[in-house]
Amino acid sequence: MNDQHNPWQIIDQRNIYDNPWIQVIEYNVINPGGGKGIYGKVHFKNNAIGIVPLDAEGNTWLVGQYRFPLDAYSWEIPEGGGDLQTDPLVSANRELLEETGIKAQKWTKIMDMHLSNSVTNETAVVYLAQELSFHAATPEESEQLAIKKLPFKKAFDMVNAGEITDSISVAALLKVNYLLANKLI
Q1: Is the distance from CB of 82 to CB of 122 less than 8 angstroms?
Q2: Which residues contact 177 (CB under 8 A, 6 or more apart)?
Q3: What's the confidence (pLDDT) of residue 2?
Q4: Low-confidence ranges of the chain (pLDDT < 50)
Q5: Cβ distance 159 to 131 under 8 Å?
Q6: CA dist 13 → 10, 29, 30, 122, 153 (Å)
Q7: 181: Cβ–Cβ under 8 A, 6 or more apart, which residues?
């Protein structure tokens, strides 16, 4: 079996919904088993950007906010969107400053991710931010944020306790914990 071969055949497609952030497309397809069906894809018009700020004392910062699609409050690493034509690091700098008021002198890309790849083509780029300085946060109008400084271990424990469920945050905090445990940062 060739892992690179696309076994799906597209018969036709139509736009179902479109706004400045997402587009929903419905495809009529022939699936890998030969049957006809439909497949819906949510196309994201921005990259997802995640940042784990980490100071010299081992502290990090989380952002808390009410997430409309979940109808629930969520603690997360600083995150946001970045234009697909913009260097993700530029977007990461902007998001970290907007949400927390933090600027970083040292940036390390720690992962690329595909988020919910069964229904969306959304990608994420995640960074570790170090050598921090502190300024005024300037959240967007749509953001009502709480900012929490805590020891990194506590944030990691929140993942293991199910208190942090956002996929980018979970993956990023697990990765940084691995890097710290193996003295790779």
Answers
A1: no
A2: 152, 156
A3: 58
A4: none
A5: no
A6: 8, 9, 12, 19, 47
A7: none
